[in-house]
Write a structure and sequence with these properties.
VC0802-like; 146 residues; alpha+beta; 2 domains
Amino acid sequence: MRGCAGRGWLSGVHADPLIETDLLIEVENKPGALATVAAAISDAGVNISAATCTRPGDTARLHILVKHPEAAKHALATALVTVTSQREVVVVDADDRPGVLADLARMVAAAGVDLDLLYLATKTRIVFGSPDLDGLQRALGVSPAR
């Protein structure tokens, strides 16, 4: 997917934003739960590009960013772990310096797009999720697939 980052659309952004897949996995919050999820995915040869845990309590909600969602879902099913949902998210490769996230957030806000997910990935990439994926893509400069 091509956006306009490569044309200098925002200082501190290294490459065009990409569309990747976020898997939501709800697991019992107990010792070893994350190890089970991470081992199943890595044993299938799938790299976890990012992970975060939200709503820790009796049930933890893990967001896992992967490039090969079908392989990861198959591996998780084999390990008796259910993927609750999957969705496309926008991933922006950004500088690790003050102000970059603020600039990106201002662009999203100026476009009138509500965010419902944000976390950091490896190599200083920022993961954005919104129920309005089309609006988010436009706000962050992701062009439609060719």
